[in-house]
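Give me structure tokens for this 491-residue protein.
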Amino acid sequence: MSKSERKSVLPSEPSHGYEFGGPLGAFATSVGLPLVCYLATFLCNDISGCPVPSALHPSSLTIAKLKEETGWPGFQGLISTKVTAWVLGYYCLSLVLQAALPGVVSEGVELSSGGRLKYKFNAFSSALTVIGVAATGTFIQGADFPLWTFIWDNYTQLITVNLGVAFSLACFVYARSFSVKAGNKEQRELAAGGHSGNLIYDWFIGRELNPRVTLPVFGTIDIKAFCELRPGMLGWVLLNLAFCAHQYKVYGYVSDSIIFITSFQALYVFDALYMEPAILTTMDITTDGFGFMLAFGDLAWVPFIYSLQAHYLAVYPVHLGYTGLAGLLAVQGFGYYIFRSANNEKNRFRTNPKDPEVAHLRYMETKSGSKLLISGWWGIARHINYLGDWIMAWSYCLPTGIAGYMVQQSSSLNDDPADGSIFGGTPTRSPVVQGEARGWGMGVTYFYVLYFAILLIHREMRDEEKCMRKYGKDWEEYRKKVPWRLIPYIY
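Here you go.
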């Protein structure tokens, strides 16, 4: 293969070494994080408590007792043919909506091998269609709408199926990446960091940059872009709504805390769906290959871990009151303002620097021709949008309060933890109490904010390395002008 032919397959940027701890880190992550999804489900449940009682008294812990407290179904109970069929049907529905509904066609950034890929975006209208159908069904059948009961009754099996889809996609795109040929008309190329030669690492990080398939009826599907915002992000909203329905069935009301979380997480999701073309300039699309890392993150981790707070509140409602809601609204509003304002400023500047909204901003021009903002939001910190994202994460965890509960069976509702309620109904069983579990459940309900901090810092470090390789001394100069990474005057 000649040098020019090789360039048309591989990115101009050479493989830049291992990330995520190399092959060992990739293996540990691929095994460990799926286990976290299951552990969060079994160790914080509606059978015995959150955490399970044995966790509070480890000296008396036995395997038999733990199985009883977690409702362990056995390995055969983790998978269901019926659930698998319905989940695959959900993915097919997403494909149908993408193909059938009108959308905006946008071009991605220029590829290393030249040219730009085209993308059809209609995730927002697709999600509205699904939510509209679900709303209609709920209006007719209430909390007993089969979608909501199906999600609650088969939650563990849903995790398994989505993990299976992520694993299968990762294997498919990895094997198919070896068919990338020089000078191909489909503009296929390998990701800079995904062709290390180590099978485990490349399978995890993603070997091909933008894997695509052409399917009958559906046309060309960009697998990475499809997974980025469609099944998992909408699945996150659907899970939260199912948890609201379950709380209503059990307690006879929907608490203000779960309404807050569900509403603002839905706002976050639909904001991302509405701004779908903006993903074309993100690291996920421009830099990372599509492997198990992104497949698992998009299809399993996001919906099942990001919805932990609503899942908790479905079992143990918390009443915030007007003061609590006002405080949370302030946190959420402040974070969202930073997040959306910073991202809008960046996108406007990249699209049209002469736009009146951004024309006044100062910037420095690099030798590569790129322009780096040094005023406005991006003059405050180099990744200021991540700060807004993290502040919003706090508003999702705080409604759970000092978390932890024990499941108590009683005949009265006098120990109801939430005096206030919305949409009152008839409860079907007594509520749980906190008891000695108070505070110990925070490891589950506040896990998101800790994980998200680690994620954002790691992503920021990857961004820095990428920009240093791309801009060299210009980036060093830029860092002098904008010294702070995420939090002004702190980090």
